[in-house]
Design brief:
Distance between the termini: 29 Å
Shape: globular
Largest sheet: 6 strands, parallel
Order of helices and strands: EHEHEEEEHEHEHEHHEHEHEHEEHHH
């Protein structure tokens, strides 16, 4: 029997965003028939932009109606059909009623906005998400929660998020399907000339959960002979002027060289992953954790805060306590010692070899692994949970 997936979302986010990359990866797997037994029926989304009233009308009425129409049209073609919403922020697209040969699934990346937790940290409690919730946003969140309850399956990109979904939506089945990446795209292709000094790559914006202030403290706590060789390379969109100024002042006080690059293209970021000595990722909360996974795929050593989701994605020896400044300073000093030995204290520009153990570990986050897990998850909907559901 034919089995197809209608993949839907709201705005067409670019592949340079986590949600956009995840959506594109799922579409690619289905379109290329890599998810055994399933194929892509169609992809439904809309362009970004427009005035605030126009965006709201499109989000609440026009686009959901378009999705329902496309769903009915595809369902009439026969066979099993799964409506797959690729982002929990678009869960309102799950219809109240669906044809009998249709099952409904939503990919859940995190619950930061739907159910933000308070994370206790040494420098004070931190909320996973602290945006404003006006009347329109509160109504929107109610629509999202109702949509998630209408789903026949929640497909979570991490086990930690899967556990939270089981708590919040106990009546909805949950599956764990880690997001995949192209290992070929990220694989080290040649020895890359290193950056000047003992270069440490930092990827991320200035959201509180990224913990740039903590990272500055950890670097400042390193011994003087280590700090004078360090070169912190910060990349990523979402850097605020206040955040850049704060990090610059902290690195100047610690006498550490800092390069603030903002958003860079894929080729440059790939070069930096091969040219730096380690990725520093002190984040307290992530839905998935693309930077550590992509770094491991290039063979770049990683130092990651041992927190749910992103912490569990790296080997134990690469995890550090989220609040232990001394542990981070010691780990950075160890990276420096390895660099100093290889380069004769920086006098030789010797390329860093790829970490073979990380290249092996990251295979569990390949597109092949995702395709196998997605096949298993969709198989739970083949003849199960199909039929009309009412809010």
């Amino acid at each position: 029997m034919d089995r197809h997936v209608l993949v839907v979302r709201g705005g067409a986010l670019g592949r340079d965003t986590g949600l956009g990359a995840s959506h594109a990866g799922v579409v690619r797997l289905l379109a290329s028939n890599e998810v055994e037994g399933w194929s892509l029926s169609a992809e439904v989304d809309h362009p970004l932009g427009g005035s605030a009233p126009r965006r709201l009308l499109r989000r609440w009425w026009f686009h959901p109606r378009r999705v329902r129409q496309r769903l009915k049209q595809r369902a009439k073609e026969g066979g099993r059909l799964v409506l797959l919403v690729t982002d929990q922020e678009q869960a309102h697209l799950v219809p109240r009623r669906a044809p009998r040969n249709v099952a409904k699934a939503v990919m859940v990346h995190d619950l930061f906005i739907l159910a933000p937790r308070i994370i206790p940290l040494a420098d004070g409690p931190m909320k996973e998400w602290s945006g404003r919730r006006g009347l329109v946003r509160r109504l929107d969140l109610r629509r999202l929660r109702r949509g998630l309850k209408r789903a026949d399956l929640l497909i979570c990109v991490s086990e930690a998020t899967a556990e939270r979904c089981r708590e919040m939506f106990p009546k909805v089945p949950v599956a764990h399907v880690p997001t995949g990446i192209s290992l070929e795209r990220y694989a080290p292709k040649q020895e890359q000339a290193p950056e000047e000094g003992c270069a440490l790559l930092v990827v991320g914006n200035d959201h509180a959960r990224k913990r740039m202030g903590f990272l500055a403290k950890a670097i400042a706590a390193c011994p003087e002979h280590v700090r004078r060789d360090l070169h912190v390379v910060r990349v990523g969109g979402g850097q605020t002027e206040a955040g850049r100024r704060s990090l610059t002042q902290a690195m100047e006080a610690a006498e550490v060289r800092l390069s603030l690059l903002g958003r860079v293209d894929d080729d440059e970021l790939h070069r930096l992953r091969q040219a730096c000595e380690a990725l520093l990722f002190p984040s307290a909360a992530e839905g998935y954790g693309y930077p550590p996974v992509e770094a491991m795929a290039t063979g770049l050593p990683v130092l990651v805060a041992d927190m749910p989701n992103h912490g569990s994605m790296v080997p134990l020896e690469h995890r550090l306590p989220v609040d232990d400044v001394d542990a981070w300073a010691d780990a950075i000093s160890d990276v420096h010692a390895t660099w100093a030995q290889r380069t004769s204290d920086g006098t030789k520009a010797t390329p860093r070899p790829a970490d073979e153990s990380l290249l092996s570990h990251v295979e569990r986050y390949s597109f092949d692994a995702q395709a196998r897990a997605l096949r298993t998850a969709l198989g739970r909907l083949d003849g199960e949970g199909l039929g009309a559901s009412v809010d």
